Amino acid sequence: MHQAFKIGSFWSKIPGYEARGSCPVCGEVESISHILLTCQAIGRELVWSLARSLWERKGLPWSVPSLADILGIGTKVWTVPGRRKRREGASRFWRVLISESVYFIWKLRCERVIAHADEEGWQHSVDSVRSRWLCAMNLRLHTDMDMTHRRFGRKALKAQSVLATWNGVIHDERALPYEWNELPKVLVGILLRVPLDAG
Ligand SMILES: [Zn+2]
Predict the structure, then answer these.
(1) Could you tell me the distance, in angstroms and rounded to a whole number, from the CA of residue 65 to the centre of ligand 1?
(2) What pTM does this model have?
């Protein structure tokens, strides 16, 4: 939003470093919009298709968020289609899903462009992108569950809010034990479900 990242046109003003402003895969100016929404490097499109596969389990329509949607993520409210009734769980899940996916695409870009800068043509594998994104989402789920613990006092998340957030996307909700928020260890095996053909 404030052009804070040292990418794209930032480098065009620095003699000798102009080439850093271009995406090494696409050759275009590497803006945030390019990285998140149009870059052809392996990862971006797959992450959005994985996000879609989870989002559609909420029974709500999907389209890849625009840059404005991403920057204004905190204000998005989903309602029951055709009605004004707010879906708080789905709205919170949207914020989690989009922010985790955006951050993950950014991390992939930094690994490719900075960490592997010396290896021309280096890209992630499809399998590693898929499994790492799933891992990141599972970590987020477990952080949510941990945050319901009473040791956080008034700052603790409400278990009902966490359940509403993840309702429909957890692999086996029947595996959630009664008062699961007091028994987080029981949940280690729970995984999000993503169809194998996603992406
Ligand atoms: Zn690109």
Answers:
(1) 18
(2) 0.83
